[in-house]
Design brief:
The chain has about 280 residues and is α/β, with parallel strands linked by helices. It has 10 helices and 10 strands. Bound molecules: S-adenosylmethionine.
Length: about 280
């Protein structure tokens, strides 16, 4: 019964996300037609049938819709940290190709680095379950070459730039000065910390750092660690939206959370004041 209900909720959220992608206006600024969006979805379905991926189709749809919704005039690249066998990279590469953006795919292609001592065990939201992270977990089958073959067959390799190595070594020299979306699925808090440290300064105001570990207290905690942010990035911690790990297949969060770069003072001065209207949500006043 539980499995059936799960499947039903998953199907319903997929249908809603597909409708959102195809029927609403995302991509219009780039001249992307509904037909092109249907083709994009068909390619994503095909890749999901053929490649093992830890990023659900719902999560991929959220990311692709977000890329198509970015203002055309906003210059910048998309960065993926943690691709494994490129199942999540396919949709990103197709969306980047349609919008004329570069996709940086950053990974060791040899799996996780050695976890720091205090991050080996990770309590899952379905406690008493827990993870034990291990070095080289999620090694890409056939390494970088395998990832490239997958993108040639299912995605758009022309849009991709590959950055091989551990984030502590590679991300500080990433060949971009403007990032408009980050998708991080790197599991270890220490890896996520490296991504934040090197990528956040290049993330444009109003843009999002999507995080695949909203269920991890240690990872979400990074986004609230003001001392660390002040020391390393000279700004206050930005916080995190959607850390409800329980909303696994929910339409809004699709089990991903994100942090958004914003200018709090500018928002207060020129933004729209909203009030909570109970079950009707927020309304402008
Ligand atoms: C869970 S897998 C990614 C799954 C993929 N997004 C998908 O949907 O199938 C985590 C990936 O992060 C990479 N990774 C984690 N920490 C890293 C680090 N510090 N440097 C480079 N790669 C790292 C691993 O090599 C692995 O490919």
């Amino acid at each position: 019964m539980r499995a059936w209900l799960d499947r039903l909720v998953r199907l319903q959220s997929t249908v809603l996300l597909v409708l959102k992608l195809i029927l609403l206006g995302c991509g219009r600024e780039y001249g992307i037609t509904r037909r092109a969006k249907i083709r994009l979805f068909a390619k994503m379905l095909r890749s999901n049938r053929n490649i093992v991926t830890l990023t659900t189709l719902q999560q991929q749809l959220v990311l692709v819709t977000e890329i198509l919704s970015l203002p055309e005039g906003l210059r910048g690249d998309v960065v993926e940290c943690g691709c494994y066998d490129a199942g999540s990279s396919v949709g990103l590469s197709l969306a980047c190709s349609l919008t004329g953006r570069r996709l940086f795919i950053c990974d060791s292609f040899e799996g996780l680095p050695e976890p720091e001592e205090e991050e080996v065990y990770e309590i899952h939201s379905d406690s008493p379950q827990f993870y034990v992270w291990e070095e080289n977990e999620f090694v890409s089958t056939d390494g970088l070459a395998g990832v490239q073959r997958t993108l040639e067959e299912f995605g758009d390799i022309e849009a991709c730039r590959f950055v091989k190595g551990y984030y502590a070594d590679t991300l500080k020299d990433l060949d971009t000065d403007s990032i408009v979306l980050i998708f991080e699925d790197a599991d270890l808090p220490s890896s996520v910390r490296d991504c934040i440290q090197h990528l956040w300064p290049k993330l444009q105001t109003g843009c999002k750092f999507y995080c695949h570990e909203p269920w991890s207290i240690k990872v979400v905690g990074l986004f609230y660690d003001t001392q660390w942010w002040l020391r390393r990035l000279h700004t206050t911690a930005p916080g995190f939206f959607g850390s409800g790990g329980g909303l696994d297949y929910g339409f809004a969060s699709s089990s991903m959370g994100f942090s958004k770069k914003f200018d709090a003072e500018a928002t207060r001065q020129s933004g729209t004041k909203v009030q909570h209207q109970g079950s009707r949500g927020f309304e402008a006043t």
